């Protein structure tokens, strides 16, 4: 922090020192901005940020090497969330864009940058976590693991909902943040998401890249942190925040149009489902080519991104239990 005062050699040599060096104590925690308590310094030479160990508990991107901290500022949170046990990233040769308000970091390309980010410079952003939506999230009325309703715990920042027993946790004392929101896996440009407006059903939509938003849509007033989506099937545009959108996943291709009297809305919805699955599969194929370097073995761990997987497992277990009971009873 020393800076030459600009005086000549004949003048008294003076230097500038910041408040941390003058006080002789470690800088404040980068997360809570408090100076009390023991703080841990990131070992990356160009970083120098300090953290309370308790503050890092909600940042799973931080990791330790030989008991020394490498803080969340030095890993892409999108790549880390998609594959937590594999260090390979989606864009290994690309620089990180870091949030100026928290330790969130993402590859600067649209492959990893969350939709709704405010780009300040080539390496500095304000991530969508810092924008407060005018309304609370529109949480789904079903569990995102077993797809059943009932007593649910809802994420405070996105529409996801879960049964406590499906998550295997006790009821938290305060608010609840889902895994994707905690690990920084936010919706990305080009991805398919489910969006709900008013009394309409959850509708498959695509997040538009900034450069492809029509001028008349881009000129409409929209709050910071919102991103533009295009409703598939109808090609209508709208600005939404992440409290009204959740990611499309592989299991969503099995959703069927409700039976009964058909309407024009149902026909449009059927087209939207077909388009959503096609775009999702194309995006997966593109990313798999980008992420997998040649000559390397596939990762030993793959994070499942399929809804309904728990319900499928439970149904299979119930069938096996019934079969075992039938065989035992007739032996």
TrEMBL record:
Xref: Gene3D superfamilies:
2.30.30.140, Zinc/RING finger domain, C3HC4 (zinc finger)
Natural source organism: Pogonomyrmex barbatus
Q: Which domain of life is it from?
A: Eukaryota
Alphabetized GO MF terms: methyltransferase activity; zinc ion binding
The alphabetized UniProt keywords are: Chromosome, Metal-binding, Methyltransferase, Nucleus, Repeat, S-adenosyl-L-methionine, Transferase, Zinc, Zinc-finger
Q: Does the keyword Cell inner membrane apply?
A: no
UniProt GO BP: chromatin remodeling; methylation
Q: Report the InterPro entries cross-referenced here.
A: NSD_PHD (IPR055198), NSD_PHD-1st (IPR059153), PHDvar_NSD (IPR055197), PWWP_dom (IPR000313), SET2_Histone-Lys_MeTrsfase (IPR050777), Zinc_finger_PHD-type_CS (IPR019786), Znf_FYVE_PHD (IPR011011), Znf_PHD (IPR001965)
This protein is called what? Histone-lysine N-methyltransferase NSD2-like
Domain (PHD-type) spans 140-184
> Which residues, by range, are in coiled-coil regions?
none
Chief localization class? nucleus
Which ranges carry the PWWP domain?
189-251
A GO cellular-component term linked to this record: nucleus
Q: Where in the cell is it found?
A: Chromosome; Nucleus
